[in-house]
Amino acid sequence: MKDLHQITVTVNGREHELTVESRRTLADMLRHDLGYTGTHLGCEHGICGACTVIMDGAPVRACLVFGVQADGTQIRTVEGLAHGDELSDLQQAFSDEHALQCGFCTPGFLMLAEAYLAETAQDGETAELTAEQARELVASNLCRCTGYQGIIEAVRSTARSRHRR
Amino acid sequence: MTVIGTRLARQEDPRLLRGRGRFGDDISARGQSWARIVRSPSARGRIRAVEAGEAVGVPGVTAVVTARDLPAGLVIPVRLAVAGTELSDFLQPILAADAVRYVGEPVAVVLGEDPYACEDAAELVGIDIEDEPAILDARAPQATVAAELSRDYGDTDAAFARAAHVVETELAIGRHSGVPLEPRCLLAVPGQGPGQDGLDIYGMTKVPVWNRDLLAGLLGLDEALIHVHAIDAGGGFGVRGEFYPEDFLIPWLALTTGRPVKWAEDRAEHLMAVNHSRQQYHRLAAAFDAGGRILALRADIIQDNGAYCRTHGVVVPELTAAMLPGPYRVPAYRGRVRVVLTSKTPCGTYRAPGRFEGTAAREHLLDVAATRIGLDPVELRMRKLLIASELPHQRPMTTLGTDMILDTGDYPALLKAALAEADRLGYRTAAAGAPEGRRRGLGLAMFVEKSGLGPQETADVTVSRSGMVHVCSGGTSLGQGIETVMAQITADALGVDPGAVRVTLGDTAAQPFGAGSWASRSTVVGGSAVHQAATAVRARAIQLAARVLEAAEEDLDVAGGSVSVRGDPAVQLSLGDVAAAAAPASRYLEPGEPAGLSARHRFEVSHMTYPYGAHIAVVEVDTGTGQVRVLRYLVAYEVGRAINPMMVEGQLRGGVAQGIGGSLFEEFSYDEDGQPQAVTFIEYRLPTAAEVPPVDVLLSQDAPSPGNPLGVMGAGEGGISAVGGAVANAVRVALGLAGGVGQLPLTPARVQALTKAGGDR
After folding, report:
1. Which candidate, B3, B124, B1, B33, places its Cα nearest to that of B490?
2. Which of A154, B335, B426, B613 has the fewest CB atoms within 10 Å, i.e. is most exposed?
């Protein structure tokens, strides 16, 4: 017998009701049950960070969270970043700084950086991210294509422009 | 103004940034079942029995398939044969029948309704194996030698006999590989096409037409009934898209069961199933005259190929041997290669195959030689680099079935420019000032790459009536930005805005004559085909517009998406209107002329083009922990002509990061029973942002390639080729070693041992 749970979860502002098996990961639930395939699985053991989503404001590895744990939470995925046809400032900065090649790890880096930038803005910390701070943040996830420099620059330039606003 | 050479934003970016890419596991088919591969837990042994009864009983599981269920005798052939080698005894079966030869070898497949259930059931498949001792050292006498080959010219023995100095070094390169971030995935959908006997396949990249044709042969199906669809790929680096056992199994299961079948591997599978690479032992000897000029070079190379010869056959060690003399004047050369089978995951190519290995071995030898002879390493290299007037330089050898002709360039000038740039950026100062307990060193490595392997690539360019331009190229997208490159090439040749160009890559129905993306060939060969097809469309547009405008063809020009009369820009016709004038039944078409504003062109080339460069690294060694940090890194690279400099720099930077991984961190290690010890990202250590420094790039466009209409050379591999050499040389300097470092990757334990040994190797 499968151990099934009825849950309610809000993804990018849209409420979903669904039934999940207790062992189903949040990543599989988002991708295969709800169709948010922008969240990618690179290792399924919490190292690469490609599956990073924002859960109630905090970045989480969706491969290390069970879907049932998302019951009642607000989830934000990469599909929720752009404003209609317009890329978010962070997404645009990734393109400008050539921070992606194959793009598989990109959603994870975007959600990691988005959560960090939102948190630091909320804490009133300076958003003038130093190169070292940005490098430490970006070292949370793995990218196999870019060598990371573009990602670091994109996060820093977004931090700078948000700070000025 | 041409769009070639501009730092155009990538066409791929918006969809990938929005999470709208279509990667393998993003695509599903209605009614699909899932497959899970059951893999050998043993490194070497005889299969006594495969017990599937318990697995079949798991709810949701529909079948367990073993070798006995498959057509008998199927093996995966070699795609890139090297003349004089015969590998048919060493090819990999689809599923192991009687014997297993590495941990991770496919033995059975579980099919079911749900991937979780399939994974549960796979663990219940009992594989009874009579273990035999694993063979883990390619230098061991009992290991099978699959092939031996040589690449020679000149009289090396005579040169060594009269040498003033003979210097010998050994360098072992660790086993590592491409490890793209997206695991492999395949979806096969049967019942397609007008006869409902065709197959749609998603997830075959790199060489989709070759894979389609091979699959058609194995399945006994007409190749045009198989449609490989182009989708996004999360990195390739040589390993993704070769024909693996799964590439037969998933389509065969779909045909056999009459249902779509989907398979997505996990990371542990990837690390023990996908091509390994790089593990080679190099013993080099160089003969020098009294002035430090090289007289001859000898290389003995042993490749640890793993358990089977896969699609690449023996091209990696062949390339190592053939490319080993590099950018230098080497009057006599003898390269010997032994390809050895061991109880490990089989090997294939990984970005800069053979060049990462050979460049490291040669450049390390040169630094050791400089110490022995008492010359500065730069001076030693300057005396031996081929100079501009010596190019083109024919090496009396072949590689990848082509004659080796180093086509163009100025190697000493690039080395000087690289050193000047490093000085300007303060590399020498950085290398001089180590804090307490640390030592620093600056290392240099020079290299020649190869790119643009033929024999052909085909492109179709078609203008729609809206003025949009559709390009179908046989290159494939592995994440390198090739869509944007092709759009820029098309925009330049045709006279349109790159935003009006849509590029389809690697779809076997749209481009059935494609040769794929590998060997840094897409821009060089594929781009040249697109350039020529777009140029032909431009000529055709002028021909048709001349009829419509009643003007002379020589008075017409194409720019900004319109054909206009020179000197009278008010008289013009959009390319969309020209396309309309080429529609069937148009009065502007002459009898018998084909309709449409379109052209197909095949670009053929028999020689490769050889880009080159220099890498300079500054490292810091913690003599206590043995940890090596790369502080500064410079790549100077001649690319002939950069279609998009931003993307060339991106390729180089990404290559450096991977090279640092292979030089310091990444290694597929095994225990004494042949159990792989690196099957997660905990043990297989990809570099993070904390290990990769900002990479300085000096991009040179001084030597356009004479072998193609764009003047381009490949950019995909020059970032990684010389990292092993530069890092090994820098660590050697930091530790003050008299000899070489002996082995890569330079893990903390090995660096500690070298520090203790005090450079006595």
Report:
1. B3
2. B426
